[in-house]
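Class, look over these structure tokens:
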Amino acid sequence: MAGPKKVLEVAGREVTVSNPDKVYFPRTGHTKLDLVRYYLAVADGALRGVAGRPMALKRFVNGVEAEPFFQKRAPASRPGWVETAELRFPSGRTADEIVLRDAAGLAWVANLGCVDLNPHPVRAEDLDHPDELRVDLDPVPGVGWGQILDVAAEARSVLADYGLTGWPKTSGSRGMHVYARISPSWSFAEVRRAAVAVAREIERRVPDLATSKWWKEERHGVFVDYNQNAKDRTVASAYSVRPLPDARVSMPLTWDEVPGCDPAAFTIDSVPIRFERAGDPWAGMDDTTGSLEPLLELAARDEAAGLPDAPWPPHYEKQRGEESRVQPSKRRPSAGGTGGAAGGGTDGAAGGSGARGGRRQPGKPLIEVARAATKAEALDGLERWKARHGDVWPLLEPADVLVDTMRGRSSAWYRIRLNLEHVPPERRPSQEALEVDYDPWAGLRG
């Protein structure tokens, strides 16, 4: 039975909050109404990141400890004042995504269960030309927070050296984001090409701290995820509450604050107080629009030196000049810089005998443990594997456990693989039946 509703007057509009007392964060007790009130308290800052941008809906209708579902198409029952924009995706499909303009829109999407906000890097008035470049710093397991901050500082320097102003924020999860406003004069492909150049330049400057390598099995330190600038990719915006137990926030910062910042300090409770006292540290962001030309010149020099285009996400068509999309552990010895497209197909074990008769020659000894509809199920499967292989588990390093969030039709699913390169060959377990064998495409084929 539905609970009581609460009607709020926001920006001259009425916004209905259904089930306002529904708990969204069980460990802190924060409710749906708490989430709505948070976004209203920081509306000026949150709108700087999302206003006028089409936005995918990631809905946690049963709270953050349940699996969300993704909704690209705007709900049919939306208020008349909620705008939409038609986006065309790499698959060829289109969708009318919502576009927020005011605080009432923030309250409305929070009522839908959108804990964090995930806008595209374009304005509704020009859907083909991004106006921001996003540097996403994603640490591999085991990397300390101090190293992430060091790489963020290097990202700032690289952007500044090529004419752009970096604006830092905590991701609200394990990493950092650095945004740069750019003139909407370049295509998605050109912005991504510039982001690849940024990632490679950071790697050149601090090779022990950062990597631009796309494949998880090749990464170390902090991965600079250039593909967050590909079309159809979204990133949690500034002031987004993240679906974590402590209700922490993706917090925009000044560069003076970065060296000593603690991401756990920025929560649904603390950020409104800070915002009221100090305002938005990104208030001047729109006054720092820059050009991509210097970075595109850097990209051209990299290409002239023989560097191929870095791998695109697997659901994109193979691009001219792109390096192989086949995982290093699955490439044939003669694959060179070409290779087939990687997709959602089965990843077999990468261990055992060498390739014969055209079979793939593994580069790293990978095995797969689980494919699951939820992360909890996948991790439970990993625990069962660990219990059976207690002599092997201590030999693995944190970065050897590859937990992948995979895109399904309307929700994510999870895959766990293990890199056994630190296990002596004679002690490496072979590929076994998966602990959890979930098929995200069951019932959709044909």
Summary: The CA atoms of residues 143 and 386 lie 22 Å apart. Residues 188-205 form the longest helix (18 residues).
